[in-house]
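Database export, one record per block. Field names are fixed; values are copied verbatim from the stored entry.
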Amino acid sequence: MSDILALVLNIALAIHIALIAVCVWRVWRGENVIDRLIGADLVGTLMLAVLVLIALIWLNAAYIDVALGLAALGFVGTIALAKYIADQQMF
């Protein structure tokens, strides 16, 4: 891997980790439930990006599979929580 690509990937990883910290703060100190749900969904999306960046940096494709599984679980979890918030019942 070229030095420039490695530098760009590491900078992108640092930026994504900083953004995760901001989103976790939003989940922790959110004004209402909707803000917290959106923050939690964004944390999941940023974690997917971090896993893909780690897979590219370490040249290990196993992290891509983990990211795909996390994406599926995150989508189902977000839909379930949104339905619970809207209807105040799970099913």
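Remark 1: The CA atoms of residues 25 and 90 lie 27 Å apart.
Remark 2: Residues 3-28 form the longest helix (26 residues).
End of record.
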